[in-house]
Amino acid sequence: MYKSSNSTCPSTFVIIFLIKDILPEEIQQQIVRETFHLVLKRDDNICNFLEGGSLIGGSDYKLIYRHYATLYFVFCVDSSESELGILDLIQVFVETLDKCFENVCELDLIFHMDKVHYILQEVVMGGMVLETNMNEIVAQMEAQNRLEKSEGGLSAAPARAVSAVKNINLPEIPRNINIGDLNIKVPNLSQFV
């Protein structure tokens, strides 16, 4: 995520989802900056697609974006994709975010990035559009939320792990653990129990 330092547009954001394992963070930041400058310098009455910048792949790729209030949603696609199809896909994505977050804003995207990624993965995965029915996407999101609540959420996982270890009923603490050629000597932990 890159926040604008432009004083005429203080709350403008450009959101791009990059696969972190493929590109180093420095290159990711350069791509975000270049994309931000390419999109922000365009007038509102100009079309919403342009050729990708030098870091993005030049004429082999297109940037397709939509501007909603203070948010820009930018998709980078190869040149064979339909611009109008991607604009429609962005519309579905944003309307789904709006349904899930009740009037989506920058803070929702920042503090609920995991949910934003989940919604995006319900819409697109591996470069393929999976679902465009907003009601189905919202239903899947609600099912995911119910599952997280029933499991106590991700934040409760460490506490559950600690309580599970404490509740192990061993008659005696093992002093030596032998796994194949590996021999592990367990120190005396009675002072911690």
From TrEMBL:
A single cellular component GO annotation: Golgi apparatus
Cell compartment(s), UniProt: Cytoplasmic vesicle membrane; Golgi apparatus
Membrane topology reported for the UniProt record: Peripheral membrane protein
Keywords from the named record: Cytoplasmic vesicle, Golgi apparatus, Membrane, Protein transport, Transport
Predominant subcellular localization, coarse grouping: membrane
Pfam families: Clat_adaptor_s
CDD domains linked: AP3_sigma
Gene3D superfamilies referenced in this protein's UniProt entry, alphabetically: 3.30.450.60
AP complex mu/sigma subunit domain mapped to chain residues: 24-147
GO annotation, biological process: Golgi to vacuole transport; intracellular protein transport
Family: Belongs to the adaptor complexes small subunit family.
UniProt function note: Part of the AP-3 complex, an adaptor-related complex which is not clathrin-associated. The complex is associated with the Golgi region as well as more peripheral structures. It facilitates the budding of vesicles from the Golgi membrane and may be directly involved in trafficking to lysosomes. In concert with the BLOC-1 complex, AP-3 is required to target cargos into vesicles assembled at cell bodies for delivery into neurites and nerve terminals.
Protein name, entry field: Adaptor related protein complex 3 subunit sigma 2
Organism: Equus caballus (Horse)
Lineage: Eukaryota, Metazoa, Chordata, Craniata, Vertebrata
